[in-house]
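Batch manifest line 335
LIGAND: iron/sulfur cluster
JOB: complex structure
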Amino acid sequence: MDLNNLEKVLKKEPEYRQKQANLAVFVNLIEDWQEATFFGLQLRQELNKECPLSIKAETLVSKTKDSIKASITLKDDLKIKSVLMHHKDGRNTVCVSCQVGCALGCEFCATGKMGFERNLDCFEIIEQALFFARYLKKNNKRISNVVFMGMGEPFLNYENVLKAIRILNYKEGLNIGARNISVSTAGIPEGIEKLSKEGFQVNLAVSLHAPNNKLRSQIMPINKKYILEQVLKAVDSYIKITKRKVMFEYLLIKDINDSDQHAMELAKLMRKPLYFLNLILYNSTGFFKPSSAKRVEEFKKILKTAGVNFSQRHRFGDDIKAACGQFAVKNRIIL
Ligand code: SAH
Ligand code: SF4
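JOB STATUS: finished
ARTIFACT:
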């Protein structure tokens, strides 16, 4: 699929053609321009040549059927991963990638270990949503939420991510509410500051994973460039401007960041209005292990006693390596 030339091809056509094309691609979810019978044959052929709609992907379904991973092949043959998660309450969340690989090299993350290839353009981000929108449509369902929690750091591909959010949000298109779109960052203050000025209702998540600079710099090298205080300062100013709550993600990694001392330090950082903590059980990638159930309970008890607002995230797709941070882990069960 490549929608980059769409505007160019339709430029010579009357204006309403662009609207028709948008409806066809984002609402009717056509997979071939031949389906757009309101366009003449010649235009359809040109569109198929200049703006192909077919998506090359392989999918894997988890045993519990609650998540599906797609491996999408891009025009330069690089591959990216996206996941669809069915929630019990009926929501369908798509987790998208924004880069091939990631330059930030977090120690616990499979994507970080593969290094950085390139940024995705905005339509390559949209392509992932369209793939699952088409899939869901076959069962009369639609995407309810999109999270930028796949491969890559959204704020190091800011313009394309923002353009993609606008397209996802577009009323006469996929129509995904801004409040149902979440962007997760490893902590790039400039990105947080920029987002606060967009006037958008999207959700911001910050990957914290350590309650002090020493440990954070060890497991997330970006912390050497932007220390915790700088990240939290940007978050505070984001909250002041947007009045929106911010989600802090904290992975529980065995013997790394899960001690009582860590919980107490974390509680101190988190006790602020509109700060919300999300504990995530680490998905094994071969480098580290998840904390034991007992440790998790003890960790949570300390947070509770300290009055911290927190929740624990449900695990999706561990068996198909579709869980956060496992995107770059290979597996062989192809459907
Ligand atoms: N680069 C951004 C967004 C992509 S990662 C970021 O780091 O926030 C999305 C989330 O998955 C982050 O919170 C990340 O820390 C987390 N993650 C990475 N590896 C993981 C793993 N093995 N298990 C569970 N979560 C992981
Ligand atoms: Fe990149 Fe996020 Fe993985 Fe860190 S956790 S390497 S920032 S994708």
